[in-house]
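Ops channel
N.P.: pipeline sanity check, posting one input/output pair.
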């Protein structure tokens, strides 16, 4: 290895497909901003090749990687160590290669969600804020963990397939009440925070049907969908005076711990970064 190659820090994102990922634009912006000698690559890896691709990271000189669909759960069985958050969520999105070659995995989505919410809604007081979470997929798991750790007194969970919501509540424990998908609007009257974690409202998907009449106008409404940035849910909430927090920030904040671990600098989330990543779509 020549001297220059050994100094260049390498990271990337593994997925299948991985063309759509905005992580290269995000980390590339930070590398340039902080003048770091590093690279962040797209790493297309088929599911059947994941274990070998992860095991090859130390020899290939990688400091670590992000994982995206469909690798976030499968990686748990490959790495040497999983953080408590990763275990609770049941999925990992960030891997660090240790100096001895060990692979340590964590999940930064819960952190990213909460950091975005706190920045977007500084009035958020978790202990006073029962929450309604729509959806029970992978993103919902991370968000429910984030809300539990922040100390919300109650989570009401609703999902089209009720079995999936029941499994999530069983796995996480704590105060999670399930409400049938058809009755979701009833749950609005008791909450101070509404989170859409479903794909409804995303470009190309059906809209999320949720009449907000029962919701207090002091409640916060957030959506993890960020294409479009202002989803129909957020537009409706904004029009009636609710505080709204869009979803792109979750992507930006979840990337901070990985960048620091790989490249040695804690990066800032700025409006310039936000504009750059939105334009990369
Ligand atoms: P992610 O990892 O991003 O959370 P996911 O695991 O595929 O993605 O979850 C997608 C979520 O959107 C689920 O809650 C899903 O509901 P089901 O568990 O019933 O599938 C929800 N979703 C997707 N399309 C939907 C639709 N047409 N109506 C209601 N919910 C929908």
């Amino acid at each position: 290895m020549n001297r220059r190659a050994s100094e260049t820090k390498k990271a990337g994102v593994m997925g299948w497909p991985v063309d759509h990922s905005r992580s290269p634009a995000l980390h590339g912006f930070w590398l340039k901003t902080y003048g770091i000698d590093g690279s962040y690559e797209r790493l297309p890896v088929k599911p059947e090749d994941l274990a070998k691709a992860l095991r090859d990271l130390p020899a290939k000189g990688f400091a670590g990687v992000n994982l995206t669909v469909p690798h976030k759960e499968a990686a748990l069985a490959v790495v040497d160590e999983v953080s408590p958050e990763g275990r609770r969520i049941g999925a990992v999105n960030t891997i660090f290669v240790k100096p001895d070659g060990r692979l340590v995995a964590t999940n930064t989505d819960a952190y990213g969600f909460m950091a975005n919410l706190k920045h977007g809604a500084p009035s958020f007081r978790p202990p006073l804020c029962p929450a309604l979470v729509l959806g029970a997929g992978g993103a919902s798991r991370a968000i429910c963990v984030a809300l539990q750790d922040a100390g919300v007194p109650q989570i009401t969970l609703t999902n089209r397939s009720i079995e999936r919501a029941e499994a999530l509540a069983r796995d996480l424990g704590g105060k999670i009440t399930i409400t049938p998908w058809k009755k979701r609007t009833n749950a609005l009257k008791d909450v101070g925070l509404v989170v859409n974690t479903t794909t409804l409202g995303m470009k190309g998907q059906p809209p999320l049907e949720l009449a907000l009449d029962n919701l207090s106008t002091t409640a916060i409404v957030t959506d993890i969908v960020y294409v479009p940035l202002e989803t129909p849910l957020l537009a409706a909430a904004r029009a009636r005076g609710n505080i709204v927090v869009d979803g792109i920030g979750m992507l930006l904040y979840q990337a901070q711990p990985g960048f620091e671990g790989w490249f040695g600098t804690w990066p800032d989330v700025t409006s310039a970064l936000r504009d750059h990543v939105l334009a990369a779509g």
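N.P.: looks fine end to end. Residues 127 and 151 are 5 Å apart (CA to CA).
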